[in-house]
Amino acid sequence: MCGIVGVIGREPVAGKIVEALKRLEYRGYDSAGVATLENGHMERRRAAGKLRNLEARLVESPLHGLIGIGHTRWATHGKPTENNAHPHASDKLAVVHNGIIENFRELREELIGKGHVFATETDTEVVAHIVTEEMRGGLGPKEAVAAALPRLKGAFALAFLFDGEENLMIGARLGAPLAVGYGDGEMYLGSDALALAPFTDTLTYLEDGDWVVLTRDGAQFHDMAGRPVVRARQRTQASAFLIDKGNHRHFMAKEIHEQPEVVGRTLAHYLDMSAGRVNLPFDLPFDPAKLSRVTIVACGTAYYAGLVAKYWIERFARLPVEIDVASEFRYREAPMDPHGLMIVVSQSGETADTLASLRYAKEQGQHILSVVNVPTSTIARESHVAALTLAGPEIGVASTKAFTCQLSVLACLAVAFGRARGALDAQAEKGLVDELIALPGLMAEAIKREPKIEHLAPSLSKATDVLYLGRGTSYPLALEGALKLKEISYIHAEGYAAGELKHGPIALIDESMPVIVISPYDAVFEKTVSNMQEVAARGGKVILIGDEHAEREASIDLHAVIVMPTMAPTFAAIAYAVPVQLLAYHTAVFMGKDVDQPRNLAKSVTVE
Ligand code: F6R
Q1: Residue range 125-145: average pLDDT?
Q2: 41-48 sheet: strands from edge to edge
Q3: Has residue 294 been placed in a domain?
Q4: Can 462 be counted among the known catalytic residues?
Q5: Is there a catalytic annotation at residue 245?
Q6: pLDDT computed for residue 25 by the predictor
Q7: Whether residue 327 has its Cβ less than 6 Å from ligand 1
Q8: Is 175 part of a structural domain of the chain?
Q9: Which of 36, 69, 435, 553 has its CA 20 to 30 A from that of 309?
Q10: 3-class DSSP state of 335
Q11: Which domain holds residue 547?
């Protein structure tokens, strides 16, 4: 949440800062701002709303400084107004912040008592004032930041710019990501590699508690205790990815359409296709045969990927799986088995609750395996092994291709565990691998259903509430379908296990209620038919996402059917995600919603 950037350059930096902010806008888009030093003095331009408003402001009133910081905001404290937009400033400095300062109230009162006047409703402004207070006491910028940081509680990535200091920028990190980039006579700070991709592919990630002093010539790192430390430089791949929409109207459409390719790429990384077996691209630092339990923790869509994986791991590896949302898991003091494995699933690899759960499990002696899309992320780095999804950067705020790539990796892990534990023989493994190999083609087939799906959007857009139902692995997909629809169209939707319908939600069914049933013709299809009949008998409109066989056997008057290609049901959730995503996408587009940047959301949730 929130993206921050800093540039010390040799030519005016405002353009580069805005370019980097564009690549960070996925982290929040409530307001944006830039500060540079113009002839040594701080100048700021800020604007409420999306980055284009700041760009317009900069056209009216350009900035020419050779050093500057920028910010794109996901509002936590205070409304998304221009006044609350970062950078926040005092007479001595400006600061941009990603995260939350939890003790900001106490600090604010203390500083007001010392005569500081606050201009905004944000938590961040205390950071500007507390460092300023240290400087008023006679400390230089570095010493002032070093003195102030230990007083801040919460999670933050910060970048500071100081009045009169044309060759100095300071960054700090605790619980929110921050990287230093090395250019040719230029230095950068950024929330992630993607932000800095056009300028450099050489980065150093700050470790938790680090702060860094940047000049045009380089970077000096310090740990939490203020000791100078050396942090390794890394080459990143981010610059290889172009951030554009191709021929698509939205990133979300592009990312849905990319799925056959990225799922294929991910599977190829984990499978030996000719031998028909799983071939993990890393050594497991534990023996799956000795595991007693798997705990999966994640948030949102990644959690639903974990929920699907629970079915696979229990079935193929005969291993009990516990799963929880990270925001609950982190505080419930769960007892953990000494021979346990925790799998954390996260696209960004920075989600605060997921990271905290990982750290808790590590303390409890668990092996930690993360399924992540960003190889340099904190979660990837803090895991014993990171299983990468090769989805490429996901820019649309609603997760699509990351989800199906997570499912692909989790499916491969489940099969690998099954084989290692002797629960699957080579023939069974080959059968499952063949089913996985078929998926990219089936997903491409599913995309061909798009015109039919688009056709359903006008009627779905009239609904105020929608129910999604599924059994087995289609149940988590029903949850994901409801999440996708509500987050981008703002239509209220709920996902339920189809068998739960009669235990309460059936009371909602009337003629105005669309019920989307996700069901390939599988072992529990007959049970799902009964649920569809229960809906139809009460006038509900059933939209079936199923195959030809399911359509034939549905034995009710269906409002609509999205006919999927016939496939083995085991991994069908991966291919069935496509129509589920397209239905939400087209409904939201029909309603004129901003599908790539839905209201109130951000891509990387680095606050609790
Ligand atoms: C929904 C969505 C979110 C994320 C969740 C976890 O479309 O994208 O629910 O899945 O915020 O994020 P990551 O995977 O980055 O940990």
Answers
A1: 97
A2: 41-48, 31-38, 67-73, 3-8, 187-190, 179-182, 202-205, 234-235
A3: yes
A4: no
A5: no
A6: 85
A7: no
A8: yes
A9: 553
A10: coil
A11: 451-608
